[in-house]
Automatic annotation (TrEMBL):
Span of the signal peptide: 1-21
Naturally occurring in which organism (per UniProt): Chryseobacterium elymi
InterPro entries: AmpC-like (IPR050491), Beta-lactam-related (IPR001466), Beta-lactam/transpept-like (IPR012338)
Residues of the Beta-lactamase-related domain: 38-337
Protein name per UniProt: Serine hydrolase
GO molecular function: hydrolase activity
Length: 357
C-alpha cells in the first residue's frame, strides 16, 4: 500500500503535469493559428521538447496543394540556412580529428583566395570575414539554375571587393559558409553531401534528412510555395549547388530533435569543440557580438538561448534551444509567405514560463 501522503503528493504532481501540458498545447495552438490559419493553404509543422521528451507535435495546412495532401509531422522540408549548423559542426569535427584548425587562414586550403592569408576559418564561421555575400550580387540570376561545383561557386564571388576587413564587423554572410563547405571537401576528401550524411545524419540517426534534390524521390516531401496576388504558385526552382553548404539541406522536425539531442549529448563533438560553437566572440575592437559558429546566441525573457532560422524559395524554418531548461522548439513552413520565427520564439517563451525545471 502507498502511504496516503505519498499518494496525495503523486496525484497532485500528475495533475500539475497534466495542467501544464494542457496549457502548453492550448497556448501553442493559439500562437500557430494566428499565422497558419488556412487549412487549405500551405502549412507547417511544429515540435516542442523538454528534457529530450516531445511535449507538442502538430502539423497544419497542406503539404501539396495540387494533390490536396494534408501536412503531417513526418513531412520533409528544406531548412535553408539552418544548414549552417551542420556545416559548422562538420568543421569542428574535422578540427577534433586534427585535420584543420579554426584559426587557419583560408589560403592554407584555397591557395589563390584573395586576402586568404588574412581571412581565417573562424572569420567564415562567425560572419566576420568581410567577403561579398553572393546572394547580394546582381549576377546571381545568371547561375541560379546552373549546376555549380564548389570551386565554381567560390570563384563566382571570391574576386568581388571586400565589404570590410576581416574581424572588423559582424555581417551575416552566405558566401563564408560556401567556402567552409569547399574546405570540408578539400580536407575530408569527400563531397559535402557524403560527409554530412555519413558523419552527422547517420551518427545522429537522422534517417529522413537529405542534401536537397528536386529530382530524387524523397518520401513525404512537402512542396514549397510562394503567395502572389492571385493565389499560391509553386516555388522558384534553383540549383541546390548554389546555396550549397550555406542552405541546401532537408529534414523533418523529428530528425531535427535528434540533431539537438546529438549536440547536447556530445554524440558528434567533445565538450571542448561543442563549447566553441556556442560561445560569443569579439571583433577586432573588442566588441562582443551575439553569434557563435552557426547559431545566434540571444535571449528569451532574459534567459540565454541558441537559435537560427532559414529561408529558401518556398520554405522557412526556425529553431530555438534554451540550454538552461533543455527546451527545444522548431517550426517549418512550406510557403515563404509564412514565417515561423516569432511563433517559435513565443512558443519557447510559453514553455519557459510553464515548466518548472
Amino acid at each position: 500500500m502507498i502511504p496516503r501522503k505519498l499518494f496525495t503528493a503523486l496525484l497532485l504532481l500528475l495533475l500539475f503535469c497534466s495542467t501544464n501540458a494542457q496549457t502548453i498545447e492550448k497556448e501553442t495552438d493559439s500562437l500557430i493559428a494566428a499565422e497558419f490559419n488556412d487549412p487549405n493553404g500551405p502549412g507547417g509543422v511544429f515540435i516542442v521538447s523538454h528534457k529530450g521528451k516531445t511535449i507538442y507535435r502538430k502539423a497544419f495546412g497542406k503539404a501539396n496543394l495540387e494533390l490536396n495532401v494534408n501536412m503531417t509531422p513526418e513531412n520533409v522540408f528544406q531548412i535553408g540556412s539552418m544548414t549552417k549548423q551542420f556545416t559548422s559542426v562538420a568543421i569542428l569535427m574535422l578540427e577534433q580529428q586534427g585535420k584543420l584548425n579554426v584559426s587557419d587562414p583560408v589560403s592554407k586550403y584555397i591557395k589563390d583566395y584573395p586576402s586568404g592569408d588574412k581571412i581565417t576559418i573562424h572569420h567564415l564561421l562567425t560572419h566576420t570575414s568581410g567577403i561579398k555575400d553572393f546572394t547580394k550580387m546582381k549576377a546571381l540570376s545568371t547561375i541560379a539554375q546552373k549546376e555549380m561545383k564548389p570551386e565554381m561557386m567560390v570563384g563566382f564571388f571570391k574576386n568581388e571587393a571586400a565589404d570590410f576587413a576581416p574581424g572588423e564587423k559582424f555581417e551575416y554572410n552566405n558566401s563564408g559558409y560556401v567556402v567552409l563547405g569547399y574546405i570540408i571537401e578539400l580536407v575530408s576528401g569527400q563531397t559535402y553531401e557524403d560527409f554530412i550524411k555519413k558523419n552527422i545524419f547517420e551518427k545522429a540517426g537522422m534517417t529522413h534528412s537529405y542534401y536537397a534534390n528536386d529530382r530524387q524521390l524523397i518520401p513525404n516531401r512537402a512542396y514549397g510555395y510562394h503567395q502572389k496576388e492571385h493565389g499560391f504558385v509553386n516555388k522558384t526552382m534553383i540549383s541546390f549547388s548554389v546555396p550549397f553548404s550555406s542552405g541546401s539541406l532537408m529534414s523533418t522536425v523529428d530528425d531535427m530533435l535528434k540533431w539537438q539531442l546529438a549536440l547536447t549529448q556530445n554524440t558528434l563533438l567533445n565538450q571542448t569543440e561543442t563549447k566553441k560553437a556556442f560561445q560569443k566572440y569579439t571583433l577586432n575592437n573588442g566588441e562582443e557580438f551575439t553569434y557563435g559558429y552557426g547559431w545566434h546566441l540571444k535571449e528569451i525573457n532574459g534567459i540565454p538561448d541558441r537559435e537560427h532560422g532559414g529561408s529558401i524559395f518556398g520554405f522557412k524554418s526556425m529553431g530555438v534551444y534554451i540550454p538552461g531548461k533543455d527546451i527545444y522548439v522548431i517550426g517549418f513552413s512550406n510557403c515563404d509567405c509564412h514565417s515561423p520565427t516569432e511563433i517559435t520564439r513565443n512558443i519557447a517563451n510559453t514553455v519557459l514560463k510553464t515548466v518548472k525545471e
